[in-house]
């Protein structure tokens, strides 16, 4: 009785042989120590393989359902909110800077205004007839680059 | 009965004619004589300030004062920012209060005494109301700047305010305010412009604004008949008397003729502007025609100050050409429509006299005038209180 080749033994283990060939190899393996070794060896490898497959099956990895990245309403709102918040912060910073500049200018302007009111109020308590005799005038001198102003009476220049 | 009525009418007319013929102040020139004994126990140098560096800074506005019912003098020292009390002879009694919470570069002035109960001072938009012992009763912050304050009675004060709107507009108002409830009532107002009477010259890097200050004041306030308000209209020739409730009691047309600004005066003003421009090297930019058109009007305002003496005679001080004199048209506040009583000119040789009611007080009954004078000649002190007799 001729020995089957390794592929035939392998197919025998996997029960992939025609019935007559299967029975032939089954009988042969009972009587041939050499083929029995090859069979045991392959069977062991196949079992290991089967066991590993079994293990693989047991792990039952769950593949997450693929979701096409379409935003739902909440996510969209959240993204818009975030954008608005960022724009808001940027706008606030810009407004604060603008206001600071405005306030500084206003303060400068107010100082000029205060000086003007002060000098006009001083005129109210000085003797206006005497001021008229002195031909008194109020002079405001403003540097256009720095915005710095000086207000004085014309008699101060003569002093 | 008819005879009686005719007699009564005649008597009333005669009294009125006699009043008109006997003005309270001597007509023409009144020579003021200084009373050297007044305030001789007060050390004016120490009272005003010992810091001589402040002399020039406060030269034009060192102090203001008002007299109380008992003759005591209440003075606000603008240099030390103090409320000080003097007796009727000008001798220092004590400092009543240090005036704090004020706009330090603005002038602090006394406004008046209300009901012999409160002393009111004003500074830009702040009113300090002190009890007579100097303790602070109330500090009021107003929403507008104040040009003049006149305390009337029963918590009512009159305020001449200047409300500045965005742009060039201002609204000058006379307001009656209740200092307790805060209620306000505008009784007179006038819309004006900031640029009125001012001329702007644009130079390379500078802007120069020259302002003619005499037309900027539209109202002058004073208290009359104990609790009524006298409003003078400088751009008009009339006076009005209001009750403390804001009711118009009477209008008096003064028939004052406003002083015409002579060509020589205009030339002097222009010369002043030109010499200033020359000083900053810009006299080439002098535009005589614009200055003529914009700054200098043809006439001065009708008057510049109003005094009410202790007998409620109204002295309306006019702009004059003569230096070192002050001419007043005098009116009675009674009868109710007012009556022209005459015109007097006050002469004073030694000192410059400021006829502003916060710098001068006329006691007709005692024939005396108390005044703050700037004692700048000998530099002993920036100011002192003096008494003139006439």
Keywords for this entry:
heterodimer; A: 159 residues; mainly alpha; two-stranded antiparallel sheet; 6 helices; B: 390 residues; mainly beta; five-stranded mixed β-sheet; four-stranded antiparallel β-sheet; 27 strands; 13% helix
What does it look like?
The complex is a heterodimer of chains A (159) and B (390). With 159 residues, chain A is mainly alpha-helical. Chain A is 70% helix and 7% strand. Chain A is built from six helices and two strands. A two-stranded antiparallel ribbon of chain A has the order 1-2. About 6% of the residues of chain A have low confidence. Chain B has 390 residues and is mainly β. In chain B, the strands form seven sheets. A five-stranded mixed β-sheet of chain B has the order 1-24-23-22-21. A four-stranded antiparallel β-sheet of chain B has the order 2-27-26-25, with no helix packed on it. A four-stranded antiparallel β-sheet of chain B has the order 3-4-5-6, with no helix packed on it. Chain B is globular. Chain B starts with a helix and ends with a strand. β1 of chain A pairs antiparallel with β16 of chain B.
List the SSEs and their pairings.
The complex is a heterodimer of chains A (159) and B (390).
Chain A: H1 6-13, H2 19-31, H3 33-59, H4 73-125, H5 128-133, E1 138-143, E2 149-153, H6 154-158
Antiparallel strand pairs in A: 1-2
Chain B: H1 2-21, E1 28-31, E2 33-34, H2 44-48, E3 63-67, E4 73-77, E5 82-86, E6 92-98, E7 109-114, E8 118-123, E9 126-131, E10 136-141, E11 145-151, E12 156-164, E13 169-178, E14 184-193, E15 198-202, E16 206-211, E17 219-224, E18 228-233, E19 238-242, E20 248-253, H3 263-279, H4 288-294, E21 305-308, E22 313-317, E23 325-332, E24 339-347, E25 360-363, E26 368-373, E27 384-389
């Amino acid at each position: 009785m001729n020995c089957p080749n390794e592929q035939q033994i392998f197919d025998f283990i996997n029960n992939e042989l025609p019935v007559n060939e299967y029975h032939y190899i089954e009988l042969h393996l009972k009587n041939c120590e050499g083929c029995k070794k090859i069979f045991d060896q392959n069977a062991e490898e196949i079992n290991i393989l089967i066991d590993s497959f079994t293990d693989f099956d047991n792990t039952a990895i769950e593949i997450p359902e693929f979701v096409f990245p379409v935003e739902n309403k909440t996510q969209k709102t959240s993204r818009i909110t975030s954008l608005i918040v960022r724009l808001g912060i940027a706008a606030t910073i810009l407004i604060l800077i603008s206001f600071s500049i405005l306030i500084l200018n206003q303060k400068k302007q107010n100082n000029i205004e205060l000086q003007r009111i002060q000098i006009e109020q001083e005129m109210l308590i000085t003797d206006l007839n005497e001021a008229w005799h002195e031909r008194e005038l109020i002079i405001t001198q403003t540097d256009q680059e720095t915005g710095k102003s000086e207000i004085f009476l014309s008699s101060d220049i003569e002093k | 009965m008819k005879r009686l009525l005719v007699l009564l009418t005649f008597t009333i007319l005669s009294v009125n004619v006699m009043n008109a013929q006997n003005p309270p102040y001597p007509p023409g020139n009144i020579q003021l004589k200084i009373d050297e004994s007044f305030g001789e126990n007060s050390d004016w140098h120490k009272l005003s300030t010992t810091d001589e560096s402040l002399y020039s800074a406060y030269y034009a506005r060192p102090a203001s004062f008002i007299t109380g019912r008992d003759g005591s003098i209440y003075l606000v020292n603008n240099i030390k920012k103090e409320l000080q009390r003097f007796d009727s002879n000008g001798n220092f009694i004590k400092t009543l209060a240090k005036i704090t919470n004020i706009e330090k570069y603005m002038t602090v002035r006394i406004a008046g005494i209300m009901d012999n109960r409160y002393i009111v001072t004003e500074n830009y938009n702040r009113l300090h109301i002190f009890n007579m012992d100097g303790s602070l009763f109330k500090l009021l912050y107003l929403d507008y700047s104040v040009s003049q304050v006149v305390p009337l009675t029963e918590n009512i004060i009159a305020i001449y305010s200047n409300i500045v709107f965005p742009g060039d507009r201002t609204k000058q108002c006379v307001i009656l305010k209740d200092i307790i409830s805060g209620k306000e009532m505008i009784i007179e107002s006038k819309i004006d412009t900031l640029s009125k009477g001012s001329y702007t010259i644009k130079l390379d890097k500078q802007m120069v604004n020259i302002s003619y200050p005499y037309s900027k004041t539209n109202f002058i306030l004073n208290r009359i008949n104990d609790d009524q308000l006298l409003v003078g209209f400088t751009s008009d020739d009339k006076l009005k008397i209001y009750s403390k409730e804001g009711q118009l009691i009477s209008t008096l047309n003064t028939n004052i003729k406003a002083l015409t600004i002579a060509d020589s005066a205009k030339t002097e003003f222009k010369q002043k502007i030109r010499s200033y421009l020359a000083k900053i090297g810009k006299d080439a930019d002098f535009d005589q025609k614009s200055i003529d058109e914009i700054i200098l009007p043809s006439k001065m305002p009708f008057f510049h100050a109003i005094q009410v003496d202790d007998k409620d005679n109204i002295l309306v001080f006019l702009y004059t050409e003569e230096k070192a004199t002050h001419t007043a048209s005098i009116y009675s506040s009674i009868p109710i429509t007012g009556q022209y009583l005459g015109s007097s000119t006050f002469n004073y040789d030694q000192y410059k006299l400021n006829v502003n009611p916060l710098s001068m007080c006329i006691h007709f009954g005692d024939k005396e005038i108390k005044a703050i004078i700037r004692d700048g000649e000998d530099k002993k002190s920036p100011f002192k209180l003096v008494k003139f007799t006439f």
